[in-house]
Automatic annotation (TrEMBL):
Gene3D superfamilies the UniProt entry points to: Jelly Rolls
Taxonomic source organism: Flavobacterium frigoris (strain PS1)
SUPFAM superfamilies registered for this protein in UniProt: RmlC-like cupins
Pfam families referenced in this protein's UniProt entry, alphabetically: Cupin_2
Highest taxon listed in the record's lineage: Bacteria
CDD domains for this protein: cupin_HNL-like (cd02233)
Signal peptide annotation: none
PANTHER family linked: BLL4564 PROTEIN, RIBD C-TERMINAL DOMAIN CONTAINING PROTEIN
Name under which the protein is recorded: Transcriptional regulator
Domain Cupin type-2 positions: 44-99
Length: 137
């Protein structure tokens, strides 16, 4: 018989700005863009109810969910439930958001590509009514 550890693999990290997130989200940086890497990578931890604002990436992004449960949604499509072990491959310039459910924290590794010096364009917040409706489904 095995037991699953509830200990996070990575530290919680530094609080991310509420300019980009609703609720509390934290980042542990792994890799920054440099002469060898045209991407950044890090662990993002979302407390329950925390989520990104709508945003796009000029060269796409990959999310690897490490723990908890949350949602990923592309504009014009239904929200998808995401959980530990899920991988989300986000195409370039697709408007989307992601974050924890209302009752569970969620942590994922985000691998985000750059186009020149740009890796993300932040847009408007996810409407509370929309987020609450997704959580109640």
């Amino acid at each position: 018989m095995t037991t699953e550890s509830n200990t996070s693999i990575f530290p919680k990290g530094e609080k991310l700005p509420n300019d980009w997130f609703t609720g509390n989200a934290f980042l542990t940086k792994f890799i920054s863009k440099d002469k060898n890497n045209e991407f950044s990578a890090g662990n993002v931890t979302f407390e329950p109810g925390a989520r990104t604002k709508w945003h796009t990436h000029p060269k796409g992004q990959v999310l690897i969910v490490l723990e908890g449960e949350g949602f990923y949604q592309e504009e014009g499509k239904p929200a998808q439930s995401i959980k530990k072990g899920d991988v989300v491959n986000i195409p370039e310039e697709v408007k989307h958001w992601h974050g924890a459910s209302a009752i569970s924290k969620m942590a994922h590794i985000a691998i985000t590509n750059y186009k020149g010096d740009v890796q993300v364009t932040w847009l408007e917040p996810v409407n509370d009514a929309t987020y609450n409706e997704i959580n109640n489904q």
